[in-house]
Every structure is written in structure tokens, then in C-alpha cells.
Amino acid sequence: MSARRENAGKVFLTVRADHLPDGRVRPLLFRAPGAPSCRIDRVLDEREAPSLRAGGQGTRYLCEVDGRIVALFHDDLYWFLEAD
User: Fold this and answer.
1) Domains of the chain, residue spans
2) Cβ contacts of 60 within 8 Å, gap of 6 or more
3) Rounded Cα–Cα distance for residues 17 and 29 (Å)
4) How would you classify the pairing of strands 59-65 and 68-75?
């Protein structure tokens, strides 16, 4: 289990997700602190991949949100985005 590491390169999120019968997790929407919720239109790719800019490891979800591609990272208990 990983410890949450505060990092200027990470934006921690609250994520609503489905847990599928085969054990996979499918994110549905996310919200950063102080921001409105963003609905995920589609999950384009899901794979084990580290966040190279922000550190951490786990699962990377490439998601389509309002016509843009967003990479969400799920590191055990925490979800985050790489900060710009």
C-alpha cells in the first residue's frame, strides 16, 4: 500500500468509479479540490504505468473528457493528475 505523498507535480482528486465483476475499476467522474466535477465520456486506455512527471506508480487511465484526453492515475488509495 502506498502512502500519499504531497508533491507539487500532483493534483489529488476525488473520483467516482465502478468496480467491475472482473476486478477492474472504471472511473466515471472526478473532481479536484475547489473545482466542479468532470464527467468522463470514455476510458480510452488502462494500463500499469508510473506518472513520470509527478512520481508514483499504479494504473494510468487515459480518458476522454469534453473532447480532451486526460491521464488519471490510481495509486492504491489515491487518484491524481499530473500538474501542468
Assistant:
1) 10-82
2) 45, 46, 47, 48, 49, 51, 71, 72, 73
3) 7
4) antiparallel
Count of CB atoms situated within 10 Å of the CB of 31? 13
45 Cβ contact list (under 8 Å, min separation 6): 60, 61, 62
3 neighbors 74 (Cβ within 8 angstroms) = no
Grid cell listed for 51:
506518472
Q: pLDDT tens for residues 30-79?
A: 999 999 999 999 999 999 987 776 676 789 999 999 999 999 999 888 99
> Binning pLDDT at 50, 70 and 90, where does residue 1 land?
very low
- Cell numbers linked to 81: 493528475
Beta strands in the chain (DSSP E): 10-19, 25-31, 38-39, 42-48, 59-65, 68-75, 78-82
This prediction has a pTM of 0.83
